[in-house]
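Hi P.,

Sorry for the delay on this. The queue was packed all week, but I finally got your sequence through. Input first:
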Amino acid sequence: MTGTPRPGGPLLLGVRHHGPGSARAVGAALDAARPRAVLIEGPPEGDALLPLAADEQMRPPVALLAHAVDDPGRAAFWPLAEFSPEWVAIRWALAHGVPVRFIDLPAAHSLAMTEEEEHGGPTEQAEDAGPAAVPLDPVRVLAETAGYDDPERWWEDVVEHRAHDGGPGDPLAPFAALGEAMTALREVYGDGGHPRDGVREAYMRIQLRAARKEFGDGVAVVCGAWHVPALEARTTLAADRALLKGLPKVKAELTWVPWTHHRLARHSGYGAGIDSPGWYAHLFAAPDRPIERWMTKVAGLLRDEDRFVSSAHVIEAVRLAETLAAMRGRPLAGLSETTDAVRAVMCEGSDMPLALVRDRLIVGGALGEVPDTAPAVPLQRDLTRQQRTLRLKPEAAEREMELDLRKDTDAARSRLLHRLRLLGVGWGEPTEGRGSTGTFRESWRLHWEPELYVRVAEAGVWGTTVLSAATARAESDALAATALAEVTALAERCLLAELPDALPVVMRVLADRAALDTDVGHLADALPSLARTLRYGDVRSTDTAALGEVAAGLAERICVGLPPACTGLDADGAAELRRRVDGVHTAIGLLAGAVPANADGLRERWRAALHKLATRDSVAGVIRGRAARLLLDDGHLAQDDAARLMSLALSPGTPPADAAAWIEGFVGGAAGGGMLLVHDERLLALVDAWLTGVPTDTFTDVLPLLRRTFSAYESGVRRTLGELVRRGPAAAGGAARTGTAPGGGTTAPGFGPVLDGPRADAVVPVLRLLLGLDTHTDTHTDAYSAADSITEAGAARSAAGHQTTDEPLGATG
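Then the structure:
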């Protein structure tokens, strides 16, 4: 029988991948049976890596990574957690000096078969054949047979809780029962699993025969429970070899890589994904009282987040979880009961803190470690060396990092992260932090995922070190680029990554593309990144003289070609060109500082181009409005001239849609657009008068554009504009709205010209009461005397810092 050593047969231990109950049962069964060899479901190429599992530096979760040598992007993982039955079997064998081997289909075949599936091979056709081809979930079928609607809850009840519920005396009994169940399922549903299972099981039977010849029947096999009946089946060696004949094959390499609990929670990789790896790790590690220990962990987490959780909460949560388990007919409280209890007792019914519990504990953020002696591609070794030198440890949890580029270590970290991004290894992403692009500060968001090991292996084709690989990749990308903006962006990345050997190639391609490209839109897209890049000469001590010449030439051509390019545009084209005008305006401001020799002439030519855009009727309204606003902000357009341009744009002869577009360009998008209307009542009055005069039949057409413009303002600005419009147009000179001070000047809006003494005195009694001052004194003190009294009281209260909480509020008044 399965699970019991019998004459003429090995010990077959059918398990559920990543199951803590199965892991404990495997350990107990191996202790009882003491096999002469242990065979495990996994790729045989990994046999040489198995001794590393006993290394002190090896800490699960980890995974076997297999990738095709000629195509590193074609890869597969076999994850193993501390609570995985396969990991327990490997560690048991290594600890007892027993040979341990993988017996599943070699990775060389499985990777090649994956490629065949992606290209519409036989396996893909089998998967698309219909509902019968969908892999069977045996745990779900068994759970439904037992009357459970949740397979995870059934598995917890019959397997995971056994160690904490006394369990049976025979350590082999669970495997015998599970093997019988799988045999019955396969009799009813046939193979029912993945279309590749037949080939895999044939290979496992061949490996099992070979092990029995070498070690006799004292062999233990740890595999998925679904495969147990197939391994027990009596087949001939010739029949199994026939199934393997003609399988595709590629050259594969394997290594150990760190894994994460978050990755275990996804339905991919070895076996099936699990929803709660952190919970399973707790069940596996807890020697006793798993619910009490779990509630203590939850309480500690919530306390760290400044939530009030006492020991009484823990006691009540445990009692509620046990009560729920009894009401639901479960032997012990499971994850659903503990979660319901935590929500009710510790989270006060809220799901917000419960989401934190799920992320930090139920799933968990564990990241494994592998020994330095694990094989790796040369690029990975260089990356690992730099990570240690720069103290940049890969972490599964996302974290923010601020870099000061004036410090050697931070500058080296920045170069490494930028080089990895150029290679497609997205470990870090730049963010908007306290600094900005081109300054001495950078902000990064770091997040390491196991898939990045595959990206590093793919990037290994470019070189053996991060620097050489990034240089070769940049040169290749420059030669392959077809758009000017691509090359300018690449030049920026080369300077950020400090790739001096690649920059000449990129600059040569950039000069060639810039000379041949006559599209003003392409030039406008390319200029901003070049202007930003020039600033890195100061930050990173990089020579950018050649880059400055190219950028200045692009700016000259844009100033000449932009006005003609802004005519005859539809709404979408005008909006896109408006965005480009903003980018060029910012870029020329940067260029003027980076290329002082041409600064004045460049500014003057761009100013002339903006004047042309602002005054030409043939230019789209949104671009004319934006050009006028840019000139006004830079002090090259007087307020009277801006009001004149607005009055012309909003005149009755202008179509309402064009007028609304001009308004959007003038006061929309740019910072301070709303404040401009708040402080310049003439412009606001012009907009107000135009808007009230828009005909009813066209108002609905311009309303969406106006709503988009004004909705971008801050709520305070919108509220102030609403108040100003509600009051109506100001009197001449604005006196009606501002008021007249005694000296003949004006006061701020909403304030009277002089102090109203009686109204100010009225608040004094309330203030004295709030501050605990003597209420028997004369309360008809003027406002200034009251302020002095309040100040003195505050000083007295500061000097009486030793006052106890039992003293009355006014004790120190």
